[in-house]
Design a protein that fits this description.
This protein is of the alpha/beta class and 288 residues long. The protein folds into 2 domains: 155 residues, P-loop containing nucleotide triphosphate hydrolases (Rossmann fold), CATH 3.40.50.300; 122 residues, no CATH class. Helix content is 43%, strand content 18%. It has a 5-stranded parallel sheet, sandwiched between helices. Helix 2 links the parallel strand 2 and strand 3. The longest helix is centred in the C-terminal third of the chain and has 23 residues. The radius of gyration is 25 Å and the shape is elongated.
Amino acid sequence: MAGTMSFTIVTGLSGAGKTQAMKALEDLDYFCIDNLPPLLLPKLVEVHAQGDESRDVAVAMDVRGRGHFHNLFQALEWLEQQGYHHRILFLDCADLVLIRRFSETRRRHPLSEAASIQDSIDLERRLLADVRQRADIIVDTTASNPGELKGRLNEVLVGLPLHKLLAVDMLSFGFKYGVPTDADIIFDVRFLPNPFYIRELSGQTGLASAVAEYVLRWPQTEEFLEKFYSLLTGLIPAYSQEGKARLTVGIGCTGGKHRSVAIGEELARRLQEGGKTCRVRHRELRTM
């Protein structure tokens, strides 16, 4: 009996967004292979299984494979015989948009031996007609940008809207050691009362309950947390629509050991309670 792996065969018209679709599937933790000849699919399954992989697999197969592509149905029949669940994701697009995309990027169509781009598209539609007929999911990308395509694939493949899949990475740091270069948003919390100047708190970090209680007890702290939480929850859907999979939020104080740590922990807790995927890291505590 086959394992728990399932296979998504990504195919469709050239220029309809297969590359963007594969990037989106990688963000969903699929094991992705592009332009695989169909007859090599059993070998891929064998290697994948030997590596003790449990991730789902996405394989892009299309007319770039030329003479090998006609073996697609034979490969799908093999998956069925072996008991592997599979589905065909077909990306379609209006001819005029495909022509514009090829003209703008100056890419050659895989079937460019035809007289014109339109002739190449017409030939490709005929070659893909049977595959489209058997497709489990058809996504039209005529009016979609990469972010919108990613959102659509998340909905049809995972059943969740895009903003539910964006992960927030909360990163505390100390300005005295430099601003993190990977942060998308940076907030400075040096305006909050500093426990460093409290003798019994100075030697501890924001992970200690006494330090956290000191930082969080002030009215300005609660006002900041409420406003920043509201800002983040409002921005997450907008970042998601742009196709972003992770949002890194930097929270900085002077040394990165007290205020930023306590604020980062509290914001992460509130986001998690609000149903958001969030983890917290403390850059300056790693060297302690």
